[in-house]
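Section 3.1 - Work completed
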Amino acid sequence: MYVRVLKHKNGRSYIQVIEKRGGKYVVRKSFGSGNTPEAVQKLKLTADRWVANQTGLQEFDFVGERELFNKLLDNISSLKLVGIEFTLGRLFDEIGFNNIEDELFRHLVLYRLVYPKSKLKTTEYLYRYEGKQYSEDEIYRYMDKLHNKQKDRVQQISYAHTLSLFPKGIQVVFYDVTTVYFEIDQEDELRKTGFSKEGKHENPQIVLGLLVSRDGYPLAYDIFEGNKFEGHTMMPVIDGFKQKYNLEQLIIVADSGLLSRSNIEQLQEQNYEFILGARIKNESTSIKDKILTLQLKNGESAVINKGDLRLIITYSDKRAEKDQYNRKKGINRLSKQIRSGRLTKDHINKRGYNKFLRMEGQINLVLDQHQIAQDKKWDGLKGYLTNSKLNKDQLIENYQHLWQIEKAFRVAKTELKLRPVFHRRQRRIEAHICLNFAAYKVYKELERFLKENKSSLSPQKVIEIAQNIHQIELTTPTTKDVLKKTIILSEEQKDIERLFQFGC
C-alpha cells in the first residue's frame, strides 16, 4: 500500500491509499481533498499513519512531519505554567479565598508556596511564567488595601473552612509564639530587640502569636512588639478569637513558656479550661518530693492535686533517653569551654546547662557533679497543669497535639520563608504576615487533601511537580482555531493529574 495524491482539474488534491490486488491497483481508502498545501499535507500525514497501522510499519514521511511540526511551532501563542492553578488554585477556591476577588491576592498567596521570595521577585516570576505583569506601586498599594480592608476577612474565611472540618465544632485550641527578625539595625515602635527564638538577638524583631485547631489548621494570629514577654501575648489572641466568633467554651493548650501566675489567674477568671505544660522542677519542695517518689515506669502517669488545679505527671523511656542525651551534649560543651578558659563567673546562671557550673576557690570554674546528679532524677518526667474536666488520658492526648503548632512555625519559616522580613511600614509587615497565614492555610489543605486521598506524596513534592506542568496554546494555520493542550509527560505528572482530575 502507498499514499497517492491525485490532483484534479478543479484545483483540489485528493488523497487516497492504493493497494495492488490480483495485479490491479485499487483504492483501499480515501481521505478527502484539500485546496491548500497545508491541508493536503495534513491529510497525507493522516493517510501515512493509517497505512503504517494497517501494515505494522512505523515509518513516516519525516520530512513532511518536520515541516508540519515547524509550522505548528510558528503558530504557538503562549506556553503557560498551569500546574499551580490546577492544584493549589483549586484548594485556594475550595477554602473560599476566591471570595476575595483581587487577583493579586491570589497570586501572592499561591506563589508564596511556590517561589517564596520578595514581593517584587514574585512578580518577576509571575511575568516570566504566567505573563502577569504588576508594578512595584501596584504591589504596595494592594498590601495597604489588604491591611486596611481584607486582613480580618482572610482570617474569617480560614476559620469558616476549618470549622467545616470539625462537625462537632472546635472545643480545643493550641497557642504558641515565635519571633520574626528583620534585616535592619534601628528599632522602632514595633520592631525591637528581645529574646529571639532564632538566635538573632542583635536584630530587631516582632513576636508572632498563632492559634491553631487540632491537626494544626490556622485559626487566628496577632503580632506584638519584639521585646514583649511571650506570656503576655496569649490572652489578647484568645480573647479576640473567642469574641469574634461568639464562642462559649474553649480549652486552651499551650507549652510551659506560657505558664505564668498572671495567665492562670486570667484563664480562671474568664472561665477558660486549660492544659499548660508545667515547670515541674520549679514546683514547691513538697510537690517535687511527691513527684520523685512516684517511681513511674514507661507510659505510666499520675495526678497530684494543687488546690483547684491538677498536676498530671507522666514518664517516658524515650523522653528519658532524650534528656540524658541533651544533658551529656551540654556538659561536653561546657567542659570544652572550661578547658579553653572561655568561661568566667559571669556564666554561672540558670540559663540552660550553665546551671551545672560553680566556682571552686577564687578563680576556677568546675562542673557541679551534685547538681548533675540531681538533674538526672527528672529524666523522662513531664508535667501538665490543668483545670480541665477531661480525664487524665484525654488531657495528655490533647497536649501531644501541640507539636502541630511547632510544625506550623517550621513550615512558615522554611517552606514559606516568613523571615527575614524586609518591609518597613507596620501595615505592610502585617500584610506580609497575613499572606503567609493564608499560604499556610492552603498548605494545610493540600496536606489534608493528600492524606484523604491516601497519596504518598508530600505537599512539597506536589508543589515541585506542579511547577513543571505547562499548557501550550496555538492557532491552527488554516482554520485559525485556538487549541490548548496541557503537557503531561512524566509519571509524576500523571499522578498529579489523576489526584486533582484536571484532565489534559
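Second construct:
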Amino acid sequence: MKIAHLTFVLIFTSASASFAQLLAPSPVDLAYHFRTGQRLHYHHVDEIRNPGGEPGYQDGNYNIKKDIMISVDHVDAAGNATLTVEINEVHDWKGGDDGTKQSMGGLGEDIPLYRITIDKFGHYVNGEVLRWSVQDSIFRERLKQPSIIGSMVADSLRIKSSFELILYPRPGRMNPLISARYHDSSSRISHPHHYYIGQQSPISPEPVVAEKPSYMSHAFDYLIKQVDKDTAMFDLEVKTSNDQVVEGQLLSHWLSNGEEYIRKENGLTVRRETIERRVTNGAPEQAYIKRTLTLVDVQ
C-alpha cells in the first residue's frame, strides 16, 4: 500500500507541475525590431478639449492630425536604428465646447523632417533636423539679427520630444513576463525659456540665478498585459506623472494613462491611446489631450 501511495503522489505532483507551466505567464519582447529599408506609415491624432477655457491650454477645442512616414535607414548589430521621420500635419480647428461646430485648416508646428537614432528600446541616441517648419525657419532667421534677443530649445530636445509622441521609449528589460510591472523615474534641471522678440538692445540681460531649485521630474509605471491568448499582440500599459518645479514651487502636475498594443512578431506599435490631464488642487481638470497613434501600413 505504501508503494502504491508513493507512486500516486509522484504522478500527481508531475501533473501539477505541467499544469502550472501552462498557466505561467509567458515572456515577451519589449524591443523594437526594425529592418533596414523598412517603411512604416502611421496616423496620429491629437484631440485637445478645453471646454472651460482653462489657462495653459489652447483656447477652444481642436484636433491636430498627422500623417507620419518612418524610413529605416540602418540597423546595427546591437539593434540601434537610424530612422528618417517625415511628418505632415493638418491643424483641424473645432469650434464650440463639443468640438464639432466648425473646421478650418492650418499647419501645426512640428518638425516636418528629421533623422534620429534610437536604441532597440526606443531611447534617444542622437538626431539632426533635416527640414524646419516655416514658423521655426522664420524665427531662426530672426535670431541671427543683432537687434533680436532670444533663445531656442536645443535641436536634440526638440527631436526627442517629437519622436516620443510617435513611438514611446520602453523599459529596457530582457524577456519580461506578462503581468510584470516596472517603475522608472528621472529628473533634470530645468530653466524657463524666454523669447525676446522686437527688443532693440543688442545686449543680453544678465542671467538670473534662482535661490531655489527648478527641475522637471518624470515617473513612469509600466504593466505588461495579455490582450488575448490567441492574438499576436500584447498590451503595454503606461502611466506617467510629470512635475515642473520653478524656483521651489510646483508649477504644473500632469498625469497620463496610455494603452500600447505591440505586435509580438516585430515589436512594432500597432495602436496606442493616451489621455493626458493636468491636476490642480488634487483633482484632474476638465481640459485634456487624447493622443491616438495607428499603424496604417508596413512595407
